[in-house]
Each structure stands twice: as structure tokens, then as C-alpha cells.
Design goal:
The structure holds two protein chains of two kinds. In chain A, 14% of the residues lie in helices and 19% in strands. Chain A is α+β, with helices and mostly antiparallel strands. In chain B, a hairpin with a 2-residue loop joins strand 7 and strand 8. The longest helix of chain B has 7 residues. The chains are: A alpha+beta, B mainly beta.
Chain lengths: 69, 162
């Protein structure tokens, strides 16, 4: 890491979101929506007032990911 | 122009954190970066898993539809996970953008789109084709950091963010 590089470490995704699609706010400091599908989460984020959500898939809580879906 | 980066590397860094029950401290760290996916009809941002073992860059089909990216449904192919699970994907053309430390890396490339439900544990995968062939990834487990430094054959220019 270069010395002039700074970034905020994101908060941990709570375990209750495991396995779900989530939407962060634009600055990725807060989860603004969650759901079972991307379209659901997109709509929920819009309704929450977030115009530039950052989508993510929270990994399942009891499954370790090793190369591939 | 690219040679300057060897002395002034600009990393793209983010390690996502997930609360889980299977690690001693209850937290799973994942090398994910905010990836902007741009098409003729718009753009969406996803946290994409940087996977140096992945041959391809795989994005959810919903993003292709949302941004109006051109795809070639006559050229489907199969991707496979470590246990041999197979998932059909179709190729498409998009612009990808990574931004960090005041610099923007934006390039046009071919990626694979998979059904959203096929992406079970990650929103998107950044593999060699389409992405990592243009970067030098560095994973620092001690400091919990990831760096992606563009290589000389990065297929676009780097600009300064506003």
C-alpha cells in the first residue's frame, strides 16, 4: 500500500444478511436494502432514497467459498 | 505513460467484511472492489470478488439488462466451479471502471453474464479475461489489503477523478 493511500475499512455485513443480495449506500458505509433478487434490492434501494447504490452478495454463513459458484 | 506507474503505483483497495459463524473471530474478509459496469443505457455498481484463479470475468445477467449491454446469445459457454458445478454464460461487451485514490481506470472489454441466481456467494467475479490480465494483484493478508496495479497493456488511459 502506498503511503498516500487512505480508505475507510467498510463495516462488517451483519450475519442476518448472509446469502442475500444487499445494497450499500454510495459511500459504502451503510446497508440501505436487502432482498432475494437484484431487482428487488434495486427497487428497495430506490425507495430508500439511494440513487447510486452499490450492490453485493453476502456469502452464505455456513458455506465456505473456494473457486467457483 | 504507463512506465510512471512503476514508481507511483495506484492501488485499488477494499476488503469487504462479513460476519459469519465459521471463523474464529466471526468475520470473513473478502477481496472485493467496487466495480462500475457501464453500458449504452446506464451504469450499475457491484462489489466484485477479485479471483486470480478465475479464467473469466462474470457478471449477473440483471446488470446486462439494466445497462443495455450488447450480448451474443449465439455464443453461450460453460463456466465451472471447483466441484465441477456448471453454469451457462453468454458473452457481452461493457465498459468497466475502477476508481480509487483519485484515479479512474476505465476500459472496454468482453465479459460473461450469468443468471443472477447462479451467483450464489459473490455478486460478480473479476477473473483473468476482461480484467485481471491488465492488473498486478497483490493480496496482503497481514495488513488485510488488496492492491490492483495496472500493467503496461492496460487497454485504456487512466484519468483523475473529479
Amino acid at each position: 500500500m502506498t503511503d498516500n493511500q487512505t480508505f475507510e475499512r467498510p463495516p462488517a455485513v451483519p450475519i442476518e444478511y448472509a446469502g442475500r443480495w444487499i445494497a450499500w449506500n454510495e459511500s459504502q458505509t451503510k446497508i440501505v436494502a436487502a432482498g432475494e433478487t437484484l431487482p428487488q434490492v434495486r427497487e428497495a434501494a430506490r425507495q430508500a432514497g439511494e440513487s447510486e447504490p452499490v450492490f453485493a452478495k453476502a456469502p452464505r454463513a455456513n458455506v465456505r467459498f473456494v473457486g467457483g459458484r | 505513460m504507463f512506465a510512471l506507474w512503476a514508481d507511483d503505483e495506484v492501488p485499488v483497495s477494499r476488503i469487504s467484511r462479513h460476519a459469519v459463524g465459521r471463523f474464529p473471530d466471526g468475520v470473513l474478509l473478502r477481496p472485493e472492489v467496487p466495480l462500475r459496469i457501464i453500458g449504452p443505457d446506464g451504469a450499475e455498481t457491484l462489489l466484485a470478488l477479485v479471483d486470480t484463479g478465475a479464467d473469466a470475468t462474470v457478471l449477473p445477467k440483471w446488470t446486462q439488462e439494466a445497462i443495455g449491454a450488447a450480448i451474443d446469445e449465439t455464443q453461450p459457454s460453460i463456466i465451472s466451479g471447483i466441484a465441477g458445478q456448471e453454469l451457462e454464460v453468454v458473452p457481452g461487451n461493457v465498459e468497466l471502471m475502477l476508481e480509487q485514490a483519485g484515479q479512474v481506470f476505465r476500459w472496454t472489454t468482453r465479459v460473461d453474464f450469468a443468471a443472477d441466481e447462479g451467483l450464489v456467494d459473490a455478486a460478480a467475479i473479476l477473473g483473468h479475461a476482461g480484467c485481471l490480465r491488465y492488473f498486478r494483484p497483490s493480496f496482503d493478508g497481514y495488513d488485510r489489503e488488496l492492491e490492483l496495479v495496472p500493467t503496461p497493456d492496460f487497454p485504456a488511459t487512466v484519468t483523475t477523478s473529479k
